[in-house]
Amino acid sequence: MVCFKQKYLVVTVLLFSFIFCLPNFACAASIRTVRVGYVPLSGYMNYDANGYRSGYGYEYLQELADYAGWKYEYIEGTWADSLVRLKSGQIDLLIGLADSPVRRREYDFSEASFGLNYAVLSVRAADDMYTSDDYHSLDGLTVGMLQGSFRNSAFEEFSKTHGFSIIPKLYPDEKSLIEALQMENINAIGLNNLRRSDAERIVASFAPLPFYAAVKKGDAGLLKELNDAMMELRLDDPQIESRLYQKYYVSNGPAALILSPEEKTYLRDKEKLVVIITQDQRPYSYFINADHKGIVGDLMKRFSKDIGIPLVYIQAKNEVEAVELLQQGKADIICDFIQDYGIAEHSGIKITFPYLELQYTALSKRGYLTDKPKVACQEGRFFNQIYVDKNYAKDDIQYYPTLEDCLDAVETGRADVTYLNSYTAQEILSESKYRNLQATLNPEFSHKVSMGINIDQNPILIKLLNREINHLGLAQVSHIINNNTLLAKRKMTMLDYVYENPVQIIVGSVLFFGTVILLLLGLLYMRKEHLAHVNKLAYDDELTGLKNLRWFEENMPTLIRENIGKKYAVISFDINRFDVINECYGRELGKKILRHIGIVLRRKESEDHIAVRSQGAHFICLLVYENREIFESDIKVLEQQFSVYEDPNTFIRLSVKLGIYLLQDNKMPITEAIDYAETACYEVKNSANSFMFFDERIKAELILHREIENHMEQALQNAEFEVYYQPKFNMQNNHMMGAEALVRWNSSHNGFLNPAQFIGVFEDNGFIIQLDFYVLEEVCKFINEQLIAGQHVVPISVNQSRLHLSEKDYLKKLKKLVQRYNIPAGSIELELTETAFADLQDVAESKAIFAAVKNLGFLTSMDDFGSGYSSLMLLNAISLDVLKLDRSFLAASEDSARTRDILEKIIEMGHKLKMQVICEGVETKEQANMLLSVNCLFAQGFLYARPMPQAKFKEFMEEQLAMF
């Protein structure tokens, strides 16, 4: 019985141990703990005065951990101890080893080193088709290399290892290489990292020499994580060695901001990022009415704009409170955290690359010196730990809640000195309140500034922040600093002026008191005039005499809030085809027309009718209205006043399109109301109406468009786009003679979508290029499968956007598809709409493109012929295989003998040009008979077959071909 109880107790303990360990297992799955040999060496791996780890090797490992998803357990020992421990498996990783055949028998070495140079493959900065996250994108690169370089073989080995091929091309010197890249004779340059060009972008870097990291022999998994992390870190921070060694300079130019699919997904899933601000020091970082301003504020706005996600700010009194907020999960990022890995590790924070350097200066009373000064410090600042605590006795340090308290303590003599960053010190000393303070001539201390995230935060965020910091570049950061310091306009009071000019004021007061008064009045007047002039430049539109959009956005919210009882409408309008007027009549006349618009609007100007010029020929108005019916009449009158421009030498009819938004809430942001009005203005341009109100339909379309753009990339990856086929028929014998490939979107978010709902959006944002090639490849796959199975195929037409005609590698992509799927000539017909042909400017270039397409075996056709944009000159210049008549032409021909005659002549013209003529949208037998009567033999439409999925089309095609 005792034995049974003992066994029961053991089983119970083991069971509870297993249950309580489950969370640890979950954590371990996401973050791997790596045991690292820590060899104390000065400047490499050591401890600072506070007991925090520091050194080149330590900092390198900390940045590496962010990319590998690791955390470390450091095991201290000598080099000899650490080598033995690595060999026996007591530690996992050791850095700083030189490579040798002997050591390679005992350890596995990293591919990349921790110093010196490495091989680099770079492309033109604008060539965004090549990415570091997808080596398949590099396949077929022509790489320029130096003749006789020992690294040339390394590039070929690297490409083979990563599954892509390169075409090497040798040049005698670097100058020839760069010229060849600029002239696009090569796609990439293969050299090393000891060079930097803002005109290039690195897509691969490898083969470093000579110091390495080593793992236990045979630990392939850890070695792969190490190599992948080191490679990605170097791609994101090519200057890591120069930062740590301070040996190589960092380029001022920005790095390209190219986000990986994983990072894009992360941003799509995030609605916002919550950022903690720990400083309230003008001009470094401060708030005005919840608007983050200053150097850090402008940097954060640029960051938000670059990655396309809004930032929400919360303020902390100091760094200690900021760390607590971050650890509590109340925010994602600390905006400005001291670049100190020891403090970061102790605080449970990961830090980014530095983006700024802060210099600190001491402020004390003028002419007051003491051997043992009392120091006023702001509570909760890490600066106190790394500088003040080291240089002052504990009894000489006084702590205050705010910086202002510290300054007041020095001003009143309770303390002798306080420290603050040099940007803020310069601002403080310009204020009359602190005229008795002085700063040290040289900065006494400096540290770099990074952003910080919780150590348990998704590691994608730290990589994303690092990419943005690289993208900013030193030049952009310097520009932002200058805008907030040297170029910033400081408000100067009269007391400030007196303090800055004491001698002149005193002498002038004694000698010429009356003159001084006149001078002061004159100065005040000049200042007023200057401010008025600046205000005019900032808020007035010189050409039209109206105010500008900035003035409108700043002043209208107050006006609307103060008149709650009034109903307001925001109108956005512009002059149609104003660019054509400028081209035909000259820019001077265009300016006269804009002045004329300004005069008309100024005549009506009142508190209830305010108009501004936004830009170009675009204007924004704020009007008070009583009811919609009267308001619409007023709009028509306003529109009529803009309908004609006339002077002694010119008479021009003008057309304006107006978008209107009726404010539903007087507290609504004016910028949002403007956006709605401009959206309505954009919509009305595609209609026959002259004005349009923003309504729920337009809002729903906006929401749908946003949904479409948010999910289109993922939808393509998830194969949500489906290819449908609509058969084409010979109307003489009812034989199927071809088909058209059409696309449908079976969206996991929005359900089944027709092309009319998303094709226009894709045309606007350029995604149509990817979708067209997706559909074309699906058709190629289908034809290839049919041929391999010994089944019949018919020619299939595939729509192509006009954007392809300006696509750089369009023909190259077509050729790859033909070769990959072995497509016989004449199997696929590429359809371009008539509007695409109308967009062609260079006929010779267009002729060459279509000739090349035909040489690849594709048929070509003009779709929607007769829709109103045709160019008969292009039909003469470019040889096409098929002419596809628009369904609107067919409908018009049924009711008009004249249109039918035109249709007959067009068909006759097509036949004489040796083009197959087909009509789409045939729905009735009468339409088919009419087409046959005018010698149009081929048709596509519901009369014969509706669009169908691929599987059903395959059955349909086999049935049709079996019948005949």
Automatic annotation (TrEMBL):
Where the record annotates domain GGDEF, the positions are 566-696
Signal peptide span: 1-28
Any one GO MF annotation of this record: cyclic-guanylate-specific phosphodiesterase activity
Q: Which residues cross the membrane?
A: 505-526
The record ties this protein, via Pfam families, to: EAL, GGDEF, SBP_bac_3
Q: Looking at the keywords, is Transmembrane helix present?
A: yes
Would you say which domain of life the source belongs to?
Bacteria
Q: Which residues form the EAL domain?
A: 705-961
Keywords of this protein's UniProt record, alphabetized?
Membrane, Signal, Transmembrane, Transmembrane helix
**Matches recorded under PANTHER family:** CYCLIC DI-GMP PHOSPHODIESTERASE PDEF (PTHR33121), SIGNALING PROTEIN YKOW (PTHR33121:SF70)
Q: What is this protein called?
A: Diguanylate cyclase (GGDEF) domain-containing protein
